[in-house]
Amino acid sequence: MALKDYIKTYLPLRDKISLKPELNGVNLLFIVASLILIGVYLYGVVGFLLHGHHAYNVSREHPWGFLVSAYEFFVALSMGTIAIAASAVFFDIKALKPIVKRALIFGLLALMAGFAVFLFEIGHPITMIIYTALSGHPTSALFWLGVFYPLTMLFTFLTFIFYSAGKNAKIFAMLTLIFANSSILTAGSIFGLLNNNPFASGVFYPIEFLLSGILGGIFLFAIIAKFFIKDDSFKEGVLYLKEATIVIASLLLIMYLIKFLTAIYGNMPGKIEVVETIFYSPRFWLFELTFGIIIPLVVAIWGRKDQIGMFCMASVLGLIGLMAARINVVEAVQVVPKQLMKIREYQLPPSITHYSPSLVEWSIGIGAIGIFMALLFLAERTLKLD
Amino acid sequence: MARYGMALDYKNCINCKACEVACKEENGVLLGADKHRIWVGQNELSGEWPMLNMSDASFLPSQCQHCEEAPCQEVCPTNATYFADGGIVMVDSDKCILCSYCMNACPYDARYVDDRTMTVDKCTFCSDTRLARGETTTACQATCPTKVRIFGDLDDPNSEISKVLREREHFSLKSHLGTKPKLFYLI
């Protein structure tokens, strides 16, 4: 049996695999954009290989930089997309089924893009794999991410295979849903469990990550629907996505309002400085709030009910907003230097820690979108996803 | 088993920074890495001449607090940060992955990246240098001209540190976080 036939017994491979796409405008734009972004990514990787972590603008006061934000963005997007697709299988939501297979694979690939960033964010990735297995520490949120990601990937893949083969995939979908949600909650808990940080500690970030991750998944579903569904089979699905957007975006707005109102009302050191810094930033008002939540919410409420075009555009803006939200959360936990909160230490401490990503950081973080796009292209050309 | 801690008679500190120099020499801290492993915080005089507020002027030497409930140890995904004999919080550089989680979790800003190994490092109470050679003092303690620091076994009722903590009032930094730090500031 040829290798392709052997793989075909498990994976829904295309009958004719060819990497040559039809050269229409959209495909051409996609390929050119992918190549440019991969070039940008490689520039960053070379910068890292030449200078190591010194190529980054992180410091002792601000040890997490843009790469953590980019990684968190891809991971939340991935887990949100996978969670929605797994829900569609487990709860038998027929309206979403036309893009379940594609969403499962796209979710996995977004996770790969996240890993492509994390590989260069973490100082010693090989050591991480070895010692997370040999001497993993169960009190660490990062350790649990190392447990939940592989489980999510495994059950997502099994869901995809069984669902594609027309077999009952509900048990795998349920496990996928559980571990995908656990992953997002744990990713948020990395910030929420920083007990020394008055702004970050608590339930806000785990819940915010869960909601915004699923919102990101909805955005990716909308983009998939726009570009891959050419008939009317997803009209009801669009309604589902819009209704879910209204609920989740509204909840997020309420959470933000309460988080910021309590911080302003309490005027508590360590919190108020963060709120003031974020409030004065267009990255919060324009990108995180307007692009990420308000525009998708407005389009979901007032846009034409079953039309995907405008909602797709709002979803692209929404993803930009979600990236800004990840940058903001990483900054929020570090913007107040800890030495300021030490008692009577340091003369004239800086009131705010300043950080801006280096070119190498921008390149790796943004260039990873190119990795994601290239993987999408490969998946589209090799797998039956319709 | 011993439970090491340090008492600091911080009002005796004259900010000569001999402790920082001795620490760098003993533990091989790179030049330029100031206020990394140990440091002396300072408050300058406030007010304007001649109405200066002398009570504001103070020095506060500090370093890793070797917390009994160390947040840096709790968040470390690979157990690179661990409790060694005597309750000393140590870093196994072979296991450190430089995720920097400990740097963000430490409430005392006591961790830094060692540029030679590209792993996170911190004060070890000289346990892998002086104590390993059989000495009973840390470098910062041994060099201090005004005897600010008293290092010893908190579980030994006859140790100097136990005696001084029984006899004098003291406080810890950020004790409200429940970290149970083992640096005690004598009042």
Description:
The complex is a heterodimer of chains A (386) and B (187). With 386 residues, chain A is mainly α. Chain A has a single domain, classed as Formate dehydrogenase/DMSO reductase fold, CATH 1.20.1630.10. In chain A, 72% of the residues lie in helices and 0% in strands. Chain A has 14 helices and no strands. In chain A, helix 3 packs antiparallel against helix 4 and helix 3 packs across helix 8. With 187 residues, chain B is an alpha+beta fold. Chain B has one domain: Alpha-Beta Plaits (2-Layer Sandwich). Chain B contains 5 helices and 10 strands; from the N terminus they run E-H-E-E-H-E-E-H-E-E-H-E-H-E-E. Chain B has a 4-stranded mixed β-sheet. A two-stranded antiparallel ribbon of chain B has the order 2-3. Chain B has a two-stranded antiparallel sheet with strand order 4-5. Chain B starts with a strand and ends with a strand. The interface between A and B is large, with 42 and 42 residues.
Percent in helix of chain B = 10-25%
Structural class of chain A: mainly alpha
What shape does the CA trace of chain A take?
Answer: globular
Radius of gyration of chain B: 17 Å
CATH class of chain A: Mainly Alpha
What do we call the CATH topology of chain B? Alpha-Beta Plaits
Compute the separation of the termini of chain A in Å: 26 Å
In short:
The complex is a heterodimer of chains A (386) and B (187). Chain A has 386 residues and is mostly helical.
Please write out the topology.
The complex is a heterodimer of chains A (386) and B (187).
Chain A: H1 3-8, H2 25-51, H3 66-90, H4 100-121, H5 125-135, H6 141-164, H7 170-192, H8 204-228, H9 235-266, H10 272-279, H11 282-302, H12 309-332, H13 338-341, H14 359-382
Helix pairs in contact in A: 2-14, 3-4, 3-6, 3-7, 3-8, 3-12, 3-14, 4-6, 4-14, 6-7, 7-8, 8-9, 8-12, 9-11, 11-12
Chain B: E1 4-8, H1 18-27, E2 38-43, E3 58-63, H2 71-75, E4 81-83, E5 89-91, H3 101-105, E6 112-114, E7 119-121, H4 139-143, E8 149-153, H5 160-167, E9 170-171, E10 183-186
Parallel strand pairs in B: 1-10
Antiparallel strand pairs in B: 1-8, 2-3, 4-5, 6-7, 9-10
